[in-house]
Amino acid sequence: xxxxxxxxxxxxxxxxxxxxxxxxxxxxxxxxxxxxxxxxxxxxxxxxxxxxxxxxxxxxxxxxxxxxxxxxxxxxxxxxxxxxxxxxxxxxxxxxxxxxxxxxxxxxxxxxxxxxxxxxxxxxxxxxxxxxxxxxxxxxxxxxxxxxxxxxxxxxxxxxxxxxxxxxxxxxxx
Length: 174
Fold this sequence. Notes:
Blueprint: H1 12-21, E1 27-33, E2 43-48, H2 50-58, H3 76-105, E3 111-119, E4 131-138, H4 142-149, H5 151-173
Helix pairs in contact: 3-5, 4-5
């Protein structure tokens, strides 16, 4: 499921909501990075940081992004344990996918030296959906810009993403 089919902004919360409504098994957010140094180039992947995980735990019960494990008559401590276990499993699956993704994308495009990163980005917060934010390169790098704007190069990167998805789910089946 794509979050859009035109050049229109979709809020970060709505992107996650779309994935959850589709009961996604995996969420991938595709981006092009930017930096002040035009010499920096390469793809990288982000998964949820520990700080981001703590942010989820602190979100109010009214926040739609978070799966609520506590309701009327339920123990709040048990609900928090269930949320923590769900999130821990999802973080592990997200990291596993990021590694497969970077291995495949690395055959189609250069990678940053430290290409697997962590952050608390909104699109990574849903505790039950493994999620990765892929920076496909730097639009502030002339070399990466060429890679991102040439149809053939871009297709190789997207094919690598597709191969990574297939490889990840093959690992899950075993």
